[in-house]
Amino acid sequence: MKISQLCLSALLPIVSASAHGEEGTGNLYCPTQNDMNVDYGDQILFGGNGWIITGNGRVSSKTSWNLLGGYMEFTMDVSNTADGVNTNFYTSSPDRENLGSATYCDDQGDGDQGCMEMDIIEANGKCAMATTVHTFQTDGQPNNGDCDRWGCTAAMSLPDSHVFQIKAMFNEDGSMDIYMDGQLHAGYPLYPVPSDASNEVVVSTMSSFGAVIESSQWFGWAPEEDNCPSGSSDGVNSSVVKISDVKVQGIIVQGPVPNLCSEMSASTPSLRGVSQK
């Protein structure tokens, strides 16, 4: 996203954080099925604050948050994903109330607009994954700190279990830290290191538009390493990714108020113990 595009925020119906009783870094939310859109895909199962995607599919949150000073946390299971399949959990920043696929945007300009995209995790399920921050809607120069379409990336390796917890901490200065199973991941820092201008775009975008959860599975680009099998497009049909225990600490910018974690109860259906096959 270009810095000049941020002036659009003056025209947007921004939701007041005070209207939701939020202060500081906001409340802790555990989005459930009613808080999520199914953008596409017909084999998506929700349970508690999580989902299972079989085959091609994408879900997105109806709410966007200012995540600065807060975090997103989830557990990801890629033990049953196919070779060459991209499984992911990321954010995008649409410039209006979130209505599912109709408002989808990312740094590549998919849909009807382009916007800031923060790929917390993109994994092919078999050998590697990456975290990438995209802040500018320009082609730009590769490997610079502006984190444009090329992005600023940290390569990450998969644990042997292929099941792991991820926590993305969003710092007040616009930078982000990724923790895997409680440890700052060794793939950090991002390369190239984001510039001050890049971080300023993150800060401005978070306060103006917020960040929406996006999570999908599709066959195509996946983190590339020499030992990564390529797979075939048919493999995605039976490929499965499980995202569970999703938590978001942030201040609502657009959209409805999602489920608070404090409102989760023992009777809430969950994905624990649900087979992925």
Automatic annotation (TrEMBL):
Residues 1-21 form the signal peptide. Keywords: Signal. This is Glycoside hydrolase family 16 protein. It comes from the Eukaryota.
